[in-house]
């Protein structure tokens, strides 16, 4: 664990958000979304600590908002459909029992004439299907001291990996994909400066950085 010296406790706060993020884009077709065309972000799969998560509703809401916000920071005029509104447009056989949607099931749904017509009327042009995984390393205890006091705590590493497959709904094909991986340290503990105790905590925000990177790259991808 890094030395959490009370005399430099501010360094623990500065560690918040530190880490690394990598991004890779694979474009398979030329794409460009017009101002009238909408994009929807859906969560198709989520694994946490190696375990498949079945209840995706609340997780999808947070990741969708993160991607949408980052994309609209780059392209303020980009229009989005909410996941619930999009699902109302798609035939039920496109969705698994848990309500999730895969690339294959959505492509099959696009072959349905009624579904395709509803999507055209709603001006839904691109669907972004997210697959995400989140893991945390084992934590380690650490101790630091100085002439003014001491600190004790533990830290660990957060890892977030996301893959966004972008479907061109108008042409019923995969337009490309974006992958992002983010990792960073997180930890907490207690310090004592002279005789005054204070909490120490810092977070990596790995998942927020990963979905933000997806959103930023998505805006560039859809600009053609």
The profile of the biggest β sheet is: 9 strands, mixed
Just name the CATH architecture of the domain at 21-135 and 160-182 and 206-222: 3-Layer(aba) Sandwich
Count every helix, treating DSSP H or I runs of 4 or more residues as helices. Answer: 6
| Rg estimate, integer Å | 21 Å
Q: What is the first-to-last residue Cα distance?
A: 45 Å
The dominant shape is elongated
Low-confidence segments, given as residue ranges, are 1-17
Overall average residue pLDDT: 84
CATH class of the domain at 21-135 and 160-182 and 206-222: Alpha Beta
β-strand number: 9
What percent of the residues sit in helical stretches (DSSP H or I)?
25-40%
How would you explain this protein's 3D organization?
- The protein is of the alpha+beta class.
- Helix content is 29%, strand content 41%.
- It has helices at 10-14, 57-74, 83-89, 103-110, 113-121, 206-222; strands at 20-27, 38-48, 51-52, 79-81, 124-136, 140-146, 149-168, 173-193, 196-202.
- Strand 7 (149-168) and strand 8 form a beta hairpin.
- Helix 2 crosses helix 6.
Structure characteristics:
224 residues, disordered N terminus, alpha+beta, Rossmann fold
Map the helices and strands:
Elements: H1 10-14, E1 20-27, E2 38-48, E3 51-52, H2 57-74, E4 79-81, H3 83-89, H4 103-110, H5 113-121, E5 124-136, E6 140-146, E7 149-168, E8 173-193, E9 196-202, H6 206-222
Parallel strand pairs: 2-4, 2-5
Antiparallel strand pairs: 1-8, 2-3, 5-7, 6-7, 7-8, 8-9
Write a concise synopsis of the structure shown.
The protein has 224 residues and is α+β, with helices and mostly antiparallel strands. 29% of the residues lie in helices and 41% in strands. The protein has helices at 10-14, 57-74, 83-89, 103-110, 113-121, 206-222, and strands at residues 20-27, 38-48, 51-52, 79-81, 124-136, 140-146, 149-168, 173-193, 196-202.
